[in-house]
Design brief:
Blueprint lengths: L1 H15 L7 E6 L5 E4 L8 E7 L5 H62 L3 H6 L1 H46 L1
Antiparallel strand pairs: 1-2, 1-3
Helix pairs in contact: 2-4
């Protein structure tokens, strides 16, 4: 509540003193060394330090400012599109690295599981005795392979997104030229 009252007070003071910023602003010191900032000219014997004057912009100046802003926005948009393409390429590289690691892990887990299953199922009696362990190892190998397939699909999708972003950037560059 206190904050709201302070904000309203500051706004009121700003609105009431808005005439101060409409014309010239004078900064001067008097004979006692006191600094004054006013919108009225200083007395003749004062030491004038600075004078600011507000001037309205002409239509040509306003149009020039708008053109500069438009150019700046277009450059910013172009940079943003380039950054988006670079980010998509980076994500594609990372997804590809994750896919390679997942494939390597799946191959290792599958290899280990095959060796373990062969060892546990060397005889019919062992197969019966270790049936649950064999199924668990086979399931673990299948899960690893499923993860690697998912990682490969994610990498393919990220690469496709990067390619589309790059094509979009090239198309927009051709339109601007």
């Amino acid at each position: 509540m206190k904050f709201l009252i302070i904000c309203v007070g500051i706004l009121l003071v700003g609105f009431l003193n808005s005439g101060l910023f409409a014309g010239q602003v004078y900064t001067w010191t008097d004979k006692d060394g006191n600094l004054h900032v006013t919108d009225t000219p200083p007395p003749p014997k004062s030491n004038l330090k600075d004078t600011l004057e507000y001037q309205e912009k002409t239509a040509a100046e306003i149009q020039e400012l708008k053109n500069r802003k438009k150019l700046r926005d277009e450059k910013g948009g172009q940079e943003e599109r380039i950054n988006r393409v670079e980010e998509a390429k980076r994500r594609a590289r990372q997804a590809d690295e994750r896919a390679k690691k997942a494939v390597e892990q799946a191959e290792q887990i599958t290899s280990d599981a095959e060796i373990y299953i062969r060892r546990l199922s060397s005889t019919k009696e062992k197969r019966k005795q270790f049936r649950k362990k064999i199924q668990r190892e086979a399931g673990r190998a299948q899960a690893a392979q499923a993860r690697s397939r998912k990682a490969i699909e994610d990498a393919r999708q990220a690469a496709e997104e990067a390619r589309l972003a790059e094509e979009e950037l090239k198309a927009q560059e051709e339109q601007t030229q």
